[in-house]
Design a protein that fits this description.
By secondary structure, the chain is an alpha+beta fold. Helices cover 51% and strands 16% of the residues. Strands 10-9-8-11-12 form a five-stranded mixed β-sheet, sandwiched between helices. Strands 3-4-5 form a three-stranded antiparallel β-sheet.
């Protein structure tokens, strides 16, 4: 490299040309250093008398010079080691265990880079970036296989990982433990849709052609991903005026709501809503094993979620205060206002007044007013479906709409944390234009994105490599790995 850089031809090279040459040639120097180290380790490997595998077969014969390829972030190298052989039995290589080599051709640093890239960007873009930074070209199938293999143990990791209980008292009094869950759809290939969706899609047959491609609703393509978040928050007492200020004075004096701390997220396409609610309560109990804190559950009002939460709380003997997201309630009010008022200004005024009434704990008044409108003008009933739906929604969810008590106690009343989690974990990666996912790959990406955003990737990577070393090397020997150290 020094000779080349000193040549007259390089004297006129641009800074870009110099940097490109040094980067490429420097990577080759580093690759050669790694190869030389592996060769030195191979020359120093000491032959042992006998190696016995976990199959109880003694391998008395040793053969030097067995090579295996290893693709690394620096380039491709070869590892040479002694193979211990016996007729009819697979060879064993204690030298591989000493180097903690993976079973696959890809080194652990390269696999780690693949997992981080695929979790963030589409496969082709991830492959192109890896080729630019490491010089290694991997196909999209290899990228997804590596990612799925790395992500396979994340559920077990979280089952065994026990976070330290968080203090029950925060900076502003009794610290809240907030649980929230939601679901969002992912476009799937037909074979990986849930059974009920596949059956309904087969019964409906193919969708008729439509010229309105951009606005046409495509059914039977999505599988719901369930996401939950658990976090701590200090209570912040507020009023309805802090949430929806009506005047400039109220806006200037408003108090902002509780801040989320120590957020933990998980998501899954494979596990059901009931299984994810169980996992959510498992994590909450790890934070508060004695049930000393106030548990707040924020949901969007889906009946199945509410049923799962009630069953799980009853089974564990923990009291939870369930609150329906105020934003979802306001969305229902806007739909009703669109039916009732033709002008936007009138709609906004009615929604502001109705929402403040709900925040003050009087949602039955709003529901009664909507039903009264339908009774006094029965001819409008069929023309105003959103009014009837909103009245029914407010009546059905009334036990979960006691916002005046929640605000006075300082609890959060909106699901912004879980909504943001769904957008980040699922939408930003799995809902890219034109993407249709297989279940295994989508689940792996979703699990990796969660473990990365939780700040647990370093701990998980240590757990994964130790577990992989156990499955790849330790289980193949009868307690003889000390000879390879």
């Amino acid at each position: 490299m020094l000779a080349h850089l000193s040549a007259p031809a390089m004297a006129s090279a641009t800074a870009e040309g110099l940097e490109d040459y040094i980067t490429a040639a420097g990577r080759e120097v580093l690759r050669q250093m790694l190869q030389d180290q592996l060769d030195a380790r191979a020359a120093a490997e000491v032959r042992v008398e006998v190696v016995t595998g976990s199959d109880a077969v003694v391998r008395p014969r040793a053969e030097r010079g067995h090579r295996r390829l290893l693709a690394t972030t620096l380039g491709r190298v070869e590892a040479t080691r002694i193979a211990y052989c016996a007729p009819g039995a697979a060879n064993l290589h204690p030298g591989d265990a000493a180097l903690a080599l993976p079973r696959q051709v890809y080194s652990y640093p390269l696999q780690r880079a693949v997992a981080l890239e695929v979790a963030e960007t589409p496969l082709r873009r991830a492959g192109a970036h890896l080729e630019r930074t490491t010089g290694q070209r991997l196909g999209t199938r290899q990228l997804m296989e590596i990612t799925c293999r790395i992500a396979a143990h994340i559920p077990t990791f979280y089952e065994q990982d026990t976070p330290a209980p968080t203090p029950a008292v925060g900076s502003e009094g009794d610290r809240l433990l907030v649980l929230s869950c939601d679901a969002t759809g992912v476009n799937m290939i037909p074979s990986d849709l849930r059974e009920a969706v596949r059956t309904a899609r087969a019964a409906d047959g193919p969708q008729p052609p439509s010229a309105q491609l951009s606005s046409r609703e495509h059914t039977g393509r999505r599988r719901m991903a369930t996401v939950f978040a658990v976090y701590d928050a200090d209570p912040v007492p507020r009023t309805g005026a802090d949430v929806l200020p009506a005047t400039a004075a109220e806006r200037a004096a408003r108090t902002h709501g509780p801040h989320a701390r120590g957020r933990h997220m998980e998501g899954s396409l494979q596990r059901s809503t009931a299984a994810m609610v169980t996992a959510m309560f498992d994590h909450a109990e790890q934070r508060d094993p004695d049930h000393r804190r106030r548990w707040i559950v924020l949901v969007d009002g889906a009946n199945h979620q509410l049923d799962c939460i009630a069953r799980e709380a009853a089974a564990r003997g923990v009291h939870v205060d369930t609150i329906v997201d105020i934003v979802h309630v306001i969305e229902y009010l806007w739909r009703a206002a669109e039916d009732l008022y033709p002008g936007h200004a009138a709609r906004a005024a009615w929604v502001a007044e109705a929402a403040r009434t709900v925040l003050d704990g009087h949602s039955p008044r709003v529901a009664a007013a909507l039903r009264q409108h339908l009774r006094t003008r029965p001819e409008d009933a069929k023309q105003l479906p959103a009014v009837a739906r909103t009245a029914a929604y407010l009546q059905a969810k009334e036990p979960y709409l006691r916002y005046h008590l929640a605000l006075a106690m300082g609890w959060p009343i909106a699901t912004g944390v879980i909504e943001g989690s769904c957008r980040f974990l699922v939408k930003d990666r799995l809902d890219v234009t034109g993407a249709r996912w297989g279940l295994t790959g989508a689940e792996a990406v979703l699990l990796l994105r969660a473990v990365i955003d939780n700040g647990d990737f370093e701990r998980y990577w240590h757990y994964f490599t130790e577990l992989d070393h156990l499955h790849t090397h330790v289980v193949r020997y009868q307690g003889q790995l000390a000879l390879a150290a």
